[in-house]
# Entry
Amino acid sequence: MTSVTRPEAPMLRTVLLALLGLTLGLGVLVAPASAAAATAERATTGYEPTWGRTSAPNQTLRRGCRSYRLSYRVTPPGTRWTAELRVLSPRGRSVAARTLVSEADAPSGVRRFQLCRATVAPGRFTIRMLVTSYADRYDDGSVARVAPSHFRLRRPR
# Structure
């Protein structure tokens, strides 16, 4: 039995492969541009001192796993907000984090975070806060970073 092939089949296959390649190529070119724009928009957000502040007293790094305190104040322009607090070790690693939400947390207060002496070295720690303010709906957020604050955890004497 002989098979009959149409002469236009290879040409049709070539055209379809070319269109597929063009479509994928455009998708690869457009996706990084939009991702880069989103990253650039977030990266250009400078520190916004009027949106809040953080602080913590210098403390002693005690044996075992203990609680340490930090204070915060969130003052964004909108009525709804979220605040992401992050404590960084002297080496720049995140060692504690907490998210505050306007519906459940006060706009200012004192919170505790836990550190274990075996996992961190004494030194100068940094508190960073990222605040998102919502005007009316949760999908219209404006993001700003608050200037970081620093505190020391020193060895016991």
